[in-house]
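Hi all, posting the design record for the shared folder.

TITLE: backbone redesign
STEP: 1 of 1
STRUCTURE INPUT:
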């Protein structure tokens, strides 16, 4: 049996391609520390992106350090492969392991810092999408976000604005507001940016989102209640029953992709 140390070592050695903004934002305050758009690993893989017809970028949630993020990317890659997906799965790794989120006394502040960092990362991911589409305009880009990762995606969409830059979006256990894709709010931007669909997998049994909402840490989340108000035509939602809030549980109830 592998020890936790060996598991971490094997994950670190895994060559899953990833976009990283680790160290770009302060984990205590959310303050911007580096203004460069992103880093990529391994560079050789990203130099050859033009040979792929499409790719999927997975964005993890709160409380993930580098090793935790890599574990989520591995889960996403494995599950999509099981479902017959033959294209690359790339990870987007950002500063989500904010200080104090595990303690009751500081969880609200730490969550807010995490949300600030996630929204700021919309700039970073949007820049990657723009750079990729500039070099390879025919490459399809799909986005998968879990929990706080969906806030990165929403911010990315708002920054992109241009038509059909993203092929499709998949949200799991989303912490963004329930009216995020309503016609009356910001949905029209998403309708323009996303070519195919935005699919929200939500669960009224998600204990983490329920706690966050009922304690007032986050406003009513899309991943817990589903949408509010009239939505844009490209938005669809599916009520699912994962065992818990973890990405592994949501991946397990995914039945097809894309």
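Okay, here is what came back for every position:
SEQUENCE:
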């Amino acid at each position: 049996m592998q020890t936790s140390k060996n598991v971490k070592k094997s994950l670190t050695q895994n060559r899953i391609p990833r976009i990283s903004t680790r160290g770009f934002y302060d984990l205590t305050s959310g303050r911007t520390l580096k203004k460069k758009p992103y880093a990529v690993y391994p560079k050789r893989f990203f130099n050859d992106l033009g040979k792929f017809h499409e790719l999927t970028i997975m964005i993890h949630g709160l409380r993930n350090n580098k090793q935790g993020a890599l574990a989520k990317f591995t889960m996403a890659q494995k599950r999509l492969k099981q479902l017959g997906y033959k294209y690359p799965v790339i990870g987007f790794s950002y500063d989500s392991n904010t200080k104090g989120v595990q303690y009751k006394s500081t969880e609200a502040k730490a969550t807010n810092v995490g949300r600030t960092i996630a929204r700021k990362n919309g700039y970073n991911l949007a820049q990657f999408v723009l750079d990729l589409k500039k070099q390879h305009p025919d490459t399809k880009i799909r986005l998968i976000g879990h929990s706080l990762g969906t806030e990165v995606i929403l911010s990315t969409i708002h920054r992109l604005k241009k038509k059909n830059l993203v092929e499709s979006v998949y949200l799991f256990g989303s912490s963004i507001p329930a009216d995020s894709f309503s016609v009356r709010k910001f949905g029209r931007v998403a309708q323009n940016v996303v070519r195919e669909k935005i699919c929200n997998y939500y669960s009224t049994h998600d204990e983490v989102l329920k706690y966050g909402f009922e304690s007032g840490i986050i406003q009513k989340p899309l991943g817990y209640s589903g949408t509010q108000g009239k939505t844009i035509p490209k938005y669809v939602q599916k009520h699912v029953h994962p065992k818990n809030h973890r990405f592994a549980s949501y991946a397990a109830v995914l039945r097809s992709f894309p």
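COMMENT: Residues 4 and 210 are 30 Å apart (CA to CA).
Let me know if anyone wants the other runs.
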